[in-house]
Amino acid sequence: MKIDKDFLGKLFEQATMNPRLRQSFDLRTSPADNSQHMLNALLPGTVVPIHRHPSTENVILLCGKLVEVIYEEVNPFLSPLKEEDTSTFDRGMDSMNVTNGRRFQEVERIHLDPTVSNYGCVIPKGAWHTVEVLEPSVIYEAKDGKYGEDGSETFDAFKAKETKDNTAST
Q: Residue 46 in contact with residue 20, Cβ under 8 Å?
């Protein structure tokens, strides 16, 4: 298999037809491969929910420009935010996160752009993160664990489980 301009062009074409404005291509060569490594074509406007993985995630940008945004969860009852803090809630938040008392505070913005030699990053294990796509981009992603079985979770799924656990204990 050759990954070239034509291949990426077809992946972008599929992404434009996908309502999510993205398209992945699985690079595993065997069902026995329990890792995840894929190409992911991302278009501006795609919404990638804030999520985390139980292992590190390697991200290499083949083309385009994007920003990986790393968050930490802030408990507003233990560490209230200062009124002048404008970096919180700017991106990736929704009303449910706010009404549940959950807050995310940006801790890092990693600008990826191969034209200025910023090729990739490693997302730390367990770090909440999302991506902002600045122009059509293709990333190579790699992480441990089979998709859907690796323990990754979106914030919404995490909150739903937490609510269920709290309800069951009362």
A: yes
Residue type, 12: F
Phi, psi (deg, nearest 5) at residue 92: 75, 5
DSSP code for 53:
-
**pTM score:** 0.75
Q: What are phi and psi of 143, to 5 degrees?
A: -160, 165
Residue 162's DSSP bridge partners are none
Long-range CB contacts (within 8 A, 24+) of 92-101:
92/48, 92/49, 92/50, 92/130, 93/50, 96/156, 96/159, 97/155, 97/159, 100/159, 100/163, 101/75, 101/76, 101/77
Per the DSSP assignment, residues forming a β-bridge with 23 are 41
Distance of CA 98 to the CA centre of its chain: 20
pLDDT, one tens digit per residue, over 55-72 is 899 999 999 999 999 998
